[in-house]
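Async update (no meeting this week)

Hi team, since we skipped the sync, here's where things stand on the single-chain job. The sequence we agreed to prioritize is pasted below, unchanged from the tracker. I ran it this morning and attached the output directly underneath so nobody has to dig for it. Comments welcome in thread, and please keep replies under the output.
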Amino acid sequence: MKIGAHLHRIGNDIVAAYLVDTDEGITVVDAGLPGHWRDFQAELVAMGRTLADVRGIILTHGDSDHLGFAERLRVEAGIPVYVHAADADRAKGGDKPKASMGRVKVGALLRFFAYALRKGGARTRYLTEVHEVNDGDVLPLPGAPVVIGMPGHSPGSVAVHFAVADAVCVGDALTTRHVLTGKVGLQPAPFTDEPTARSIRSRGWQGLRRAGCCQGTAHQ
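Output:
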């Protein structure tokens, strides 16, 4: 679904991924769940694009609901996957702390888990090779994405700024719909490793039209 100039989204307000479309090709941000592969292919068709147009995928962090089809893209199409150095091991299936769920409403929780199962959430395919990035890096990908470190949800959580789309993809640093309570509105996402260390940084974000959250809808 096209949500803005150069910016497309697949998934829904539970789990989402983004595609930034430029003349140089496509940069993907996050890979949702394994079952989003078909949604991804369908979106490429709707855009008049193919896998050959995809130049790279950036993970905002290494949790399983962001890995989705990333390894499949890497193995089958040779597309590089970028993740912050502090989350590289997590993206490869390494240990992660058990995060508190906080407040929960049964209906919202069931909807979250039902959707995750329907989209293959029990079939996580971890990465075997990644390109590590750090805060401030400008990646050699379409849209010249800028990596902005936002530790807290995980040690290597990042936001990705695309000037060409006048947008920033913030991963799970923020959400517009809490998947465990159903609460709507801009707020921190659940399953955060260190809530007290959460970093909501605004460098270069003033005046942006959209913040793309991987849980919830795009914030304008």
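Quick observations from my side:
The longest helix spans residues 106-118.
The chain has one domain: 2-213.
Reply here if anything looks off.
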